[in-house]
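F.,

This is the one I mentioned.
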């Protein structure tokens, strides 16, 4: 069953036909527990159904409705997790980049998408991947927010390479760990994480993410010019104490910092190492592992299924 709640809901052509509109409203209402009168009243913000009503700090290029729809899904998932998932630990405290790195490294793991996802779930931070956002919606890369007491990170970039999603996740994890998002506070939406954002919180999150992924001493990457995807891949495989994917990303960011676009070479290197796909499925696999279980009531189980199917 493919619920695809959001795209149907926001599709103009569908909503223009009254019968369709009623059908979609009924379906959304049923699955999201939103009263139909709320959906029908265009002046009524959908966020009325959220556990805590988020306001939006950064809405660069995206409409508040699009972001609210995403927050609705995220917070509904968090509410289901809080109610039905026994073994999900509550989120405890914000931690320094050294502490987060220390916990992962002490388990004998490198810092990459797999270990960061495991860290988040181990520490009560939900991570979702949602691709099927409202059709009219401007794309954004990621969001971080608190739904009640639970931090939730939504990845939404369309990227599937694990090192890309690791970078986005590390940045959002920074917003949580530095305390940029707090219980009862505003969500943060990042439209384009590849662009350098001058705002203080964004610079701080980027520094945290870079150190988390690369370590306190950044790896020595090849010079901007004169390398190929294959050479870069082979450098990355020989690099000590840093995940090959993060090494490749570090190369491209270093080039970007010098005003040069070398993302094509980086992408070729990722592909050479088989690191250009499979990231979205890694995120979904952990959602499935933690949230899908027998005792969950049918509507909640179908909602989670809808969230998961938005991956494919
Ligand atoms: Zn940010």
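My design for it:
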């Amino acid at each position: 069953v493919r619920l695809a709640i959001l795209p149907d809901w926001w599709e103009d052509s569908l909503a223009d036909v009254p019968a369709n509109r009623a059908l979609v409203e009924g379906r959304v209402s049923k699955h999201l527990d939103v009263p139909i009168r709320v959906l029908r009243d265009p002046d009524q913000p959908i966020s009325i159904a959220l556990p805590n009503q988020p306001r939006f700090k950064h809405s660069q290029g995206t409409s508040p409705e699009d972001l609210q729809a995403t927050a609705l899904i995220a917070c509904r998932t968090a509410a289901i997790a809080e109610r039905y998932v026994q073994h999900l630990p509550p989120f405890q405290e914000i931690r320094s980049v050294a502490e987060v790195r220390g916990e992962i490294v002490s388990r004998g793991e490198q810092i990459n998408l797999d270990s960061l996802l495991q860290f988040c779930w181990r520490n009560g931070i939900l991570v979702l991947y949602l691709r099927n956002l409202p059709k009219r919606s401007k794309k954004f890369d990621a969001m971080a927010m608190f739904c009640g007491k639970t931090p939730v990170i939504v990845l939404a970039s369309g990227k599937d390479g694990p090192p890309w999603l690791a970078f986005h996740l590390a940045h959002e994890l920074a917003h949580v760990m530095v305390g940029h998002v707090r219980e009862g506070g505003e969500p943060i939406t990042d439209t384009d994480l590849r662009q350098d954002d001058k705002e203080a919180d964004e610079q701080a999150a980027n520094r945290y993410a870079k150190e988390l992924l690369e370590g306190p001493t950044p790896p020595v990457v090849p010079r901007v010019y004169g390398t190929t995807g294959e050479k870069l891949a082979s450098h990355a495989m020989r690099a000590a104490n840093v995940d090959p994917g993060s090494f490749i990303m570090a190369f491209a960011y270093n080039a970007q910092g010098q005003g040069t676009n070398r993302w094509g070479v980086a992408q070729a290197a990722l592909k050479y190492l088989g690191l250009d796909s499979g990231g979205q499925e890694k995120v979904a696999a952990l959602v499935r592992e933690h949230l899908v279980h027998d005792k969950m009531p049918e509507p909640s189980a179908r909602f989670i299924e809808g969230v998961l199917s938005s991956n494919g």
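The radius of gyration is 20 Å.

Talk soon.
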